[in-house]
Structure formats: C-alpha cells, structure tokens
Amino acid sequence: MTVFAMLLAAAAPAILGDPAQEARAQSLDREIRCVQCQNEPIAQSTADIAGDMRALVRERIAAGDSDTEIRAFFRDRYGDFVLFRPPFDARTWALWAAPFLLLGVGLAAVTTTRRRRVENEPPLTPEEGER
CcmH/CycL/Ccl2/NrfF N-terminal domain spans which residues (predicted)? Predict the structure, then answer.
C-alpha cells in the first residue's frame, strides 16, 4: 500500500497554495486533452506527457496567466485538437457545423424515404379497407 501511495504522490502535480488557483488548474486539466491518450483529459491520463502538461498548467497559473492565455498556449503548441472545446473560427467552423449538417441530411433522407414509400403503396381494395 505504501508503494501505491508513493507512486500516486509522484504522479500528482504539486498543488497550488491558493484554493481558487487550484480550482482553476483542475478545471483546465479537464478541458485540455492528453496528446498521447487523445480521448482523455490530462486530469485523468496517467501518461508522462499529461503529468508534464498538468505541471505546466500550474506553473502558468502561478505566473499569473489567465485561463484564456493558458488555453491559447496549449492551442499554439499542440493545435486545436488539444482543447475539448475548440474555439469557433474560420478554421473550425466545419467542426462546429458538422453535427447540424449531419442531422439535416439524416432528416432529409428519412423524409424522402417515407414519401417514396407512401407514393409506391398501391391503394387499398374495398375488402382491405374494411379490415
């Protein structure tokens, strides 16, 4: 059990002295994607690079950077992919619009299929209509 506690302590970044700053760091840790794991925030990742990124978040907070500046730093360094919520701009508009476009295409396909099905059905005979 002591070995596990030592490993956990070694993997955890240094906690900031100010609780408000630590809360900011933890919030940012959940918003920034691990570049090695790719589907985990750095807060949950056990990869070495994620530990370095968590430490870097805390260093930049301690240096006085704002959350926006820290996100911009990681975005400049690793690209839009590193942020779970990339900003809306000329480069990412398709990413933000894709769910709506796909929903529209799906609704159009369902509507077209239903219309064709109704048009191709033969009319009911009087015997069928009585049932």
Answer: 6-130
* Cα gap 28→13, rounded to integer Å: 13
pLDDT at 7: 47
Q: Which fold has domain 1-86?
A: Helicase, Ruva Protein; domain 3 (1.10.8)
Distances (CA, A) of 124 to 8, 77, 118, 131: 72, 67, 12, 10
Q: How far, in Å, are 16, 33, 52, 65, 109 from residue 22 at the CA level? A: 5, 18, 16, 13, 49
CA distance 9 to 23: 19
State residue 102's pLDDT score: 92
The identity of residue 38, as a single letter, is Q
Task: Determine contact, residues 70/57, Cβ cutoff 8 Å.
Answer: yes
CA nearest neighbour of 64 among 73, 77, 52, 76: 73
Mean pLDDT of the 95-110 span:
89
Q: Which residues pair with 122 in a beta bridge?
A: none
